[in-house]
Amino acid sequence: METSYFNPPMGLRNILLRIKAKGYFPILAHPERYVYMGKDGYLQLKTMDVKFQFNLFSLMGMYGKEVQQKTHRLQKSGMYEYTGTDIHRLETLKTALQTKVSAGK
Question: What's this model's pTM, rounded to 2 decimal places?
Answer without folding.
Answer: 0.85
